[in-house]
């Protein structure tokens, strides 16, 4: 199920953990606000409020309000979690961008040549990749700035000829 209009995908619920309703969650967001107690997430039409969350290996173990036993936790297995975008004034580190603001943006190189439009973002062990409508993949490390809704990249010569 895709996120509702205006909502962003923030993670997916995995397996139930223990007997008291905890579930494992894999977040696709690196923002700590998403796993904070009191954070409001959605699973389709259902609103889920985080009571507790703690890191466990590469996932989080999360207790949601009203999910108090293993059966209730198992019923959430595989559910996509969505949420409203965070406050746009939240501070980002240099070189960080909101993914939802990149989607649909035109991409040009530093010479102003159009390279395509961003249609997605793929996680990659070295660097996340912008997926362009031209099927080109642009490592995020080549993004130099986003100005007036346009993503400006400085790729090495020949990268789009491969």
What does the model show?
The structure is a single chain. By secondary structure, the chain is mainly beta. 6% of the residues lie in helices and 43% in strands. It is built from two helices and twelve strands. It has a six-stranded antiparallel beta sheet. A hairpin with a 2-residue loop joins β4 and β5. The longest helix has 5 residues, at 70-74. It is elongated, with a radius of gyration of 19 Å. The two termini are 35 Å apart. The model has no long low-confidence stretch (mean pLDDT 90).
Task: Record keyword descriptors for this entry.
162 residues, mainly beta, six-stranded antiparallel sheet, 2 helices, elongated
| Helix/strand/pairing category | mainly beta
Percent helix: under 10%
Low-confidence stretches: none
Mean pLDDT: 90
Q: Report the β-strand fraction as a percent range.
A: 35-45%
What is the number of beta strands? 12
Shape: elongated
CA(first)-CA(last) distance: 35 Å
Strand order across the biggest sheet?
A: 3-4-5-2-1-6
Order of helices and strands: EEEEEHEHEEEEEE
How would you sum up this structure in a few lines?
The protein is 6% helix and 43% strand.
